[in-house]
Amino acid sequence: MSGLKKTWSSRERKHWVSKQRGFLLKGKAADVVQVVQKLCRGRNSKAIKTERDCFVRNEGRLDFLTVKSLNLPIGSGAIESSIRRVVNLRLKGPCTFWYRENAEKMIMLRSFYKAGRWNCLKQMATTHNPVPAA
Fold first, then answer.
1. To 5 degrees, how large is the angle CA 4–CA 40–CA 26?
2. Cβ atoms of residues 27 and 68 within 8 Å
3. N or C: which end of the chain has fewer CB within 10 A?
4. Are 24 and 62 in contact (CB under 8 A)?
5. Is 60 exceeded by the pLDDT of residue 134?
């Protein structure tokens, strides 16, 4: 977002990003969205509108204070790493071919196993209620 503001120096951009990141980590997503909307006023650039709309649309997902208090990872690194390790390394090996539906089933099985919920999966398979308890 700050990269789209051409009149700012590199230092001003870094300061703005750092300040907004601090607000997000303190649970002030509404303040960040408000600042972004103010920054984009009067602009006709499609890129700026796209960035602004992304913040507005995802304001409810920016509750990093709650995420942090639950000791959950913030950012996409953990997800990207999981995709690489589980999907790419396990299912996309050399000379390996999977039908989509079978690959999805294998990913689900591996996910239950790695999450320590194998017994939950066994229970689901042997009962009439296939929805797992949270």
1. 90
2. no
3. C
4. yes
5. no
User: DSSP string of 39-95?
Assistant: HTTT---HHHHHHHHHHHHTGGG--HHHHHHTT---SSHHHHHHIIIIIIHHHS-TT
Task: List pLDDT tens digits, range 17-69.
Answer: 899 999 998 889 899 888 888 877 665 567 778 888 888 898 888 888 888 88
Give the pLDDT confidence score for residue 3 in this predicted structure: 64
- The rounded distance, in Å, linking the Cα atoms of 39 and 5 is 9
DSSP state of 132: P
Please give the Cα distance from 20 to 17 (Å, whole number).
Answer: 5
Instruction: Map tokens 């950012």 to a residue.
Output: 75
